[in-house]
Each structure stands twice: as structure tokens, then as C-alpha cells.
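Work Package 4 report. The design task specified in the project plan requires that, given a folded chain encoded as C-alpha cells, an amino acid be chosen for each position. We show below one input record used in the internal validation round.
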């Protein structure tokens, strides 16, 4: 091959390399301006070249030193399905609210209306309303945040009820009603523990814990409601000391029944979230006297 042919080939290759370098630089500058981010500035060490419609293909070239950005932290709740807990949790909320209302009726019958024990009954009613609101949102994944808020609100109501129960015990001692004071003091721990568990259930949703973890807290809260049902039933014995004892006894019995049903259905809602199904029995429908009204 003549020497000038080698020179010609070298010259052509040099021109092609120079043209390719100039074209790549211009293309990158154009795209970099187009994809400029106001918060981060030019894309760091990442070459993203997108051809115009006249060019046949698109090329994505990523440097081995490319910087990857992790997703930012967020406080939004994850979308979980709490539908298995919707029906029993609704029954639990309605029964809990009803038990609070009947406790207020009992205080009226024994001439304690307007006192701290009536206020504790109002807190039970408010907590039940919040639980029912949470249950109404359990049917929809988009209602997760509402479930979280309402469960925590129910926990707050019961926690505030602790102070009312302590005050009610003090009032009973002033009236020299020692047996009632002792029972109220013993029941205070159930208010506090149940409120803490409902608050923890809402916090578990906010922290994106598993559905099973939420169910564990609901089961624990339902167990505390069983203790409250025993307290309410024990008020039947205290009703004998008042003139309207028959009315007071009926109210105490009903309050205890409603609370027992609230406990049962709340435990069921927690078990449903954990995938635990109780064995069906012929007498299950008799417990609690039907739905929570």
C-alpha cells in the first residue's frame, strides 16, 4: 500500500473521532439544560442522552461513579387492608359506647349523676364512638390514616378516664362508700392499660408495622375490656344500698353485658387481623345478646 493511503486513512479516522466528540458534547449540554433540577442542580455524573425524533435510537449511558439518591423519609401511613376487622370492631365500638351510656344511667339511679364516675362513663362512650369510626374506615385501604387517628383518639379518651376514675374513688370515700371506692380503684388499671393498647395500635399503623402487630394490640385491649366488664357487673351488689336499687341493678347488669360483648368482639377483630379463626360453636351467637347496640 502506498504511504499516502495510510495518511489518508489516518486523517479520515481523526476527523471522525473529532466530529463524534463535538457532537456528544453538544448533545449532553442540551439534555443537561433540559433536565436541570432546581433543587439538585445538574444531574451529577449521569449521562442521559435522548435523541430528537429525527434520530433513530435513544442511548442511556451511566457512569460507574453515578450517585444514587435514596427515597426521602415520609410520615405517611402505608396502605393496609383492615377489612377483616371491620365488622367485629364496629360491634366493639358500639357496645363500648353503650356501656358508657348505661354506666351514666347507673350513676343517676344511685344519686351519683354529675360526679367523676359519670364523667368516666362519658369517656367510655367517647372511646366507643372513636372505635366505631375506626371500624367504618377499615373497609378501605385509603382509610388507613383515619383508622390510625381514631384508634389513638379512643386510647386518649380511656387514658383521660383514668383521672376520672381516681377522682370517683376519692368521692366515694368522702361519701363513706368504701366498697365502691375499692372497686373503682381496681378498675382504674383497666382504663389505663386499654387506653395504652389502643394508642399502641394506632401508633403501629403510623409506624408501618404489620397488620398482625396491630391485631396483637387489639387483642390486648379487648382483654382489658373483660376486666372492665367484671367491674361493671360488680356494681349490681352496690345497687342494693340505694332506694332505686332495681333500676340500678338493671343498669349495672346491662353495662356489664355490653362491655363483655365489646371485649369479645374487639378480641375477635384482633384475631382476624392475625389470621386466627376461632372454632365455631352453636352458642356463639348468644354471647353478648346479639350485636352491639
Amino acid at each position: 500500500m502506498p504511504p499516502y493511503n495510510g495518511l489518508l486513512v489516518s486523517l479520515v479516522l481523526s476527523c471522525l473521532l473529532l466530529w463524534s466528540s463535538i457532537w456528544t458534547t453538544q448533545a449532553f449540554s442540551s439534555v443537561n439544560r433540559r433536565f436541570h433540577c432546581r433543587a439538585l442542580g445538574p444531574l451529577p455524573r449521569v449521562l442521559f442522552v435522548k435523541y430528537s425524533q429525527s434520530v433513530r435510537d435513544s442511548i442511556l449511558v451511566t457512569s460507574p461513579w453515578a450517585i444514587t439518591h435514596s427515597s426521602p423519609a415520609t410520615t405517611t401511613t402505608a396502605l393496609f387492608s383492615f377489612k377483616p376487622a371491620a365488622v367485629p370492631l364496629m360491634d366493639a365500638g358500639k357496645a363500648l359506647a353503650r356501656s358508657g351510656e348505661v354506666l351514666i344511667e347507673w350513676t343517676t339511679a344511685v344519686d351519683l349523676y354529675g360526679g367523676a364516675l359519670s364523667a368516666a362513663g362519658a369517656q367510655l362512650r367517647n372511646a366507643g364512638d372513636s372505635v366505631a369510626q375506626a371500624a367504618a374506615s377499615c373497609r378501605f385501604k385509603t382509610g388507613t390514616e383515619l383508622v390510625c387517628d381514631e384508634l389513638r383518639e379512643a386510647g386518649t379518651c380511656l387514658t383521660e378516664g383514668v383521672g376520672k376514675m381516681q377522682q370517683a374513688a376519692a368521692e366515694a370515700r368522702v361519701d363513706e362508700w368504701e366498697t365502691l371506692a375499692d372497686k373503682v380503684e381496681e378498675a382504674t388499671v383497666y382504663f389505663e392499660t386499654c387506653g395504652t393498647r389502643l394508642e399502641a395500635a394506632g401508633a403501629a399503623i403510623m409506624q408501618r408495622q404489620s397488620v398482625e402487630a396491630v391485631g396483637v394490640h387489639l387483642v390486648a385491649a379487648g382483654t382489658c375490656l373483660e376486666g372492665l366488664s367484671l367491674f361493671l357487673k360488680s356494681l349490681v351488689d352496690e345497687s342494693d344500698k340505694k332506694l332505686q336499687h332495681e333500676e340500678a341493678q338493671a343498669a349495672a347488669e346491662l353495662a356489664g353485658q355490653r362491655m363483655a360483648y365489646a371485649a369479645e368482639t374487639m378480641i375477635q377483630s384482633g384475631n382476624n387481623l392475625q389470621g386466627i379463626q376461632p372454632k365455631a360453636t352453636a352458642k356463639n351467637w348468644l354471647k353478648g345478646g346479639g350485636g352491639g347496640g
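The first strand starts at residue 46 and ends at 49. Validation will be extended to a larger panel in the next phase.
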